[in-house]
Amino acid sequence: MENNFFGEETAIILGLGELQVGKCPMGTIGLGSCIALILHDQRRSLAGLAHIMLPESRGDTDRPGKFADTAMSALLEEMGKAGSTKSSITAIVVGGASMFEFSANSLNIGERNATAVKERLQEQGIRIEHEETGGKVGRSVYYWPEGKGRLIIKRADGTCIAL
Amino acid sequence: MELDPFQKDALAEFGNIGAAHAATSLSQMLMSPIEMTVPEVQAIDIANLHNYINNEITAMVVFQIQGEVADGGYVVVSMPRETVIQLTNQMLGTTDADRDINEMDQSAAIEIGNIMISAFLDATAELLGIVMLPSPPALAIDMAHAAFESIVAQVAGDVNDVLIFNTELTSEAPPVYGSIYMLPNAELTQQLFLMLERMMEPLS
């Protein structure tokens, strides 16, 4: 599948369960029940993004980006190594939709994902600068870490917001 | 999870039998011939899913596999928007193809999914010698990848790759295009491999 949304060669598209810390543009495409968690350090023009699939790791550590708890600590640790402090980090949380109609609850884990991510942010005392969670619509997310950071959310219904 | 060529072939044959039955029932419903591709079976790392599942607006009818395999994974019928509208038109005898998806289309998509997946699971269950039944359907009309994520989250909590069976169905008139996906969970995958081993045993 062609993923040239950015029009920039350096952009990194993160698949399910992946995470990345850096200064280059990053994004996730076709976000459903998953969460894109972005941690942003304005002073260093540095950001971390995780494409989180489930709320709890239950001790599973081989792919930290996959779960809300492990993704949070992995992102913070890597940004810490790059010089970020908790007080300079803000968060953006996108995703956690309920994609299916007429569904038993098992497929609609979006809400649990969103709750888990927000709880972890609160524990860490990290302020949420922008949040778009829940609903019934898929989203794609693109983020440019430079300066204040630039965010574009494209929704499946064709609407698009830029921050 | 690495699939050797033999496993790949045998799994594809397994999917083939299910998909053939599903295609036959769709063909009967539309009273027109349906062509299908030989199923592709791939073990896909979840991080690479977006390279296999596109991001187009797609109608996806999803069933959990139940019966003797408890929560055995999912089967999915996926159809582009235009196909759903074509199918509703075909069934109702209407012709307006240039319209938004409505409730009638949603019902039609679910009904088509129901009929195809019942046939798919009947055929594959018989091969395995177990009872497999579809759950009530769930429907999403959205970015295909976004809908797939929710399904993958259910089958890949403990593992990092999923086994995906993909068969494409096409018809000329009406112009219909769609895919069937099967995502067995770890337990059902094990059962499939056991079945393959039995098939390999020499005749005595």
Key words describing this protein structure:
heterodimer, A: 163 residues, alpha+beta, five-stranded mixed beta sheet, 2 helices, 10 strands, 18% helix, 34% strand, globular, B: 204 residues, eight-stranded antiparallel beta sheet, 8 strands, 45% helix, 27% strand, Chemotaxis protein CheC (chain B), CheC (chain B), chemotaxis (chain B)
Largest interface: A-B, 38 and 39 residues
User: What's the end-to-end separation of chain B, in Å?
Assistant: 31 Å
- Figure out the total of helices of chain B: 5
Q: How many runs of DSSP E, i.e. beta strands of chain B?
A: 8
Topology (SSEs and partners):
The complex is a heterodimer of chains A (163) and B (204).
Chain A: E1 12-13, E2 19-22, E3 26-31, E4 35-41, E5 46-52, H1 68-81, E6 89-95, H2 110-124, E7 127-133, E8 139-144, E9 150-155, E10 160-162
Parallel strand pairs in A: 1-3, 6-7
Antiparallel strand pairs in A: 2-5, 3-8, 4-5, 4-6, 8-9, 9-10
Chain B: H1 5-30, E1 35-36, E2 40-45, E3 57-67, E4 73-80, H2 81-92, H3 103-128, E5 132-134, E6 138-143, H4 144-155, E7 161-171, E8 176-184, H5 186-200
Antiparallel strand pairs in B: 1-7, 2-7, 3-4, 3-5, 3-6, 4-8, 7-8
Helix pairs in contact in B: 1-3, 2-3
Brief synopsis:
The complex is a heterodimer of chains A (163) and B (204). Chain A is of the alpha+beta class and 163 residues long.
Describe the structure.
- Chain B: This is Chemotaxis protein CheC.
- Chain B: Keywords: Chemotaxis, Hydrolase.
- Chain B: It comes from Methanoculleus chikugoensis.
- By secondary structure, chain A is of the alpha+beta class.
- Chain A is built from two helices and ten strands; from the N terminus they run βββββαβαββββ.
- Chain A has helices spanning 68-81, 110-124, and strands at 12-13, 19-22, 26-31, 35-41, 46-52, 89-95, 127-133, 139-144, 150-155, 160-162.
- Chain A has a five-stranded mixed sheet with strand order 1-3-8-9-10, with no helix packed on it. A five-stranded mixed sheet of chain A has the order 2-5-4-6-7, with helices on one face.
- Chain B has 204 residues and is an alpha+beta fold.
- Chain B is 45% helix and 27% strand.
- Chain B contains five helices and eight strands.
- Chain B has helices spanning 5-30, 81-92, 103-128, 144-155, 186-200; strands at residues 35-36, 40-45, 57-67, 73-80, 132-134, 138-143, 161-171, 176-184.
- In chain B, strands 1, 2, 3, 4, 5, 6, 7 and 8 form an eight-stranded antiparallel sheet that branches.
- In chain B, strand 3 and strand 4 (73-80) form a beta hairpin.
- The radius of gyration of chain B is 17 Å and the shape is globular.
- Chain B starts with a helix and ends with a helix.
- Chains A and B meet through strand 3 of A and strand 3, strand 6 and helix 4 of B.
